[in-house]
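Researcher: Quick test of sequence recovery. Tokens follow.
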């Protein structure tokens, strides 16, 4: 049986999806949807859990090894009858009965994914294989949170989903960007070979409350530095660009992608593009105009520019971001001030 994929593109399915068990089949119509979120104790994962739990017809299972995530992010759900938290490493097989899988587990900040690159690539490859095996066994739909880093240091700008990327296969970032590229390949191979229902989101830089204060990513670094009265560390040359998406917009995009008819990959991100120097100046203006900005050394293979083309997300999912950077940064500042116990000065 050959059928076109839901995107109407060249991806051919060779087998129909596995039939859900009779109990789960009836549940689709009568009872709760059981949803697994891997990496559920992390930054995006915990916001996604919050949103999924708002629907009383959802049961949510969060799985995490707490490498970069924390139980604290999920504390309001622990003990809730529709919620379950499992300490588990996705590089090991997982046996649960679920209807949907949001597969987020993977360290995302460059300083963390470079800390143990072999573990990062195992998480991307073996972790994704395990979650696809689970999806195959139970007939669940699975969504992978891939990344704009699959475009590497892009030679096309803005980046469309059709662009194949410019990625260093042996660099210090490869455990992450090549790891996610293999994860995407595995998703499509399971889709074509076994008929698994897949969804792939290519996420562009996302920020918001609950990021680790010492996460190392640029927005969390600048906000924490400005609150502490330290210099903002702009990595040279400072003209490199990124496009920043607020976390509630991201979660909305992921849920629409999971619920829709399109496999993706689909870019989910905010097309507003800023140089790192512009970002530093904006944080300085909003948080503390007296802090200094200093140029520090950069790390190898840092992409020079990044901006999503979101025509597919708009057209196929009816999604576009709502929160601008100037609206999102103060929401993150409030959260960081609370956690750092540094109230805003009256004259700021
Ligand atoms: N935030 C972004 O800007 C961004 C951009 C592109 C893609 N993504 C992707 O989104 C997902 C979530 O990113 P995030 O920003 O929330 O990062 P995060 O580090 O806060 O969350 C990742 C979570 O995965 C968990 N984890 C890591 N390895 C694991 C393993 N082997 N087994 C089980 N759990 C494991 C961590 O403990 C953490 O809770 C990641 O897949 C990341 O690649 C994020
Ligand atoms: O969106 C994505 O696809 C990827 O984006 C980020 O990777 P990166 O853009 O390198 O994120 P940051 O570490 O926040 O760096 C962004 C830019 O800020 C600069 N930077 C970083 C930190 C800092 O203190 N100062 C600074 O100028 C970096 O040189 C870089 O140019 C995420 O960390 C990845 O998980 C994600 O997959």
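Model:
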């Amino acid at each position: 049986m050959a059928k076109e994929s839901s995107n109407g593109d060249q991806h051919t399915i060779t087998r129909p999806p596995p039939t859900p068990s009779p109990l789960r089949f009836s549940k689709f119509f009568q009872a709760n949807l059981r949803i697994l979120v891997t990496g559920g104790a992390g930054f995006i994962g915990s916001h996604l859990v919050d949103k999924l739990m708002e629907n009383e017809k959802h049961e949510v299972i969060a799985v995490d090894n707490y490498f970069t995530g924390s139980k604290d992010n999920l504390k309001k759900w622990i003990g809730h009858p529709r919620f379950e938290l499992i300490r588990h490493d996705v590089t090991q097989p997982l046996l649960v009965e679920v209807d949907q899988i949001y597969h987020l587990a993977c360290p995302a900040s460059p300083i963390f994914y470079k800390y143990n690159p072999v573990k990062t690539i195992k998480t991307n490859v073996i972790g994704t294989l395990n979650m696809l095996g689970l999806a195959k066994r139970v007939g669940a739909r699975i969504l992978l949170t891939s990344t704009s880093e699959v475009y590497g240091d892009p030679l096309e700008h803005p980046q469309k989903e059709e662009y194949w990327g410019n990625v260093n296969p042996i660099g210090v970032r490869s455990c992450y960007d090549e790891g996610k590229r293999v994860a995407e390949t595995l998703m499509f191979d399971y889709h074509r070979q076994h008929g698994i229902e897949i969804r792939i989101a290519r996420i562009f830089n996302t920020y918001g409350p609950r990021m680790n204060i010492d996460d190392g990513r640029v927005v969390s670094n600048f906000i924490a530095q400005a609150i502490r009265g330290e210099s903002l560390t702009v990595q040279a040359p400072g003209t490199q660009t990124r496009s920043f998406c607020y976390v509630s917009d991201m979660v909305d995009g992921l849920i629409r992608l999971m619920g829709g008819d399109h496999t993706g990959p689909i870019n989910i991100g905010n097309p507003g593009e800023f140089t790192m120097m512009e970002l530093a100046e904006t944080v300085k203006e909003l948080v503390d105009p007296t802090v200094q900005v200093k140029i520090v050394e950069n790390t190898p293979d840092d992409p020079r520019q990044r901006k999503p083309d979101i025509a597919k997300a708009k057209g196929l999912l009816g999604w576009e971001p709502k929160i601008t950077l100037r609206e999102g940064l103060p929401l993150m500042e409030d959260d960081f001030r609370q956690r750092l116990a540094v109230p805003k000065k009256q004259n700021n």
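The domain at 3-207+245-268 is CATH 3.40.50.720 (Rossmann fold).
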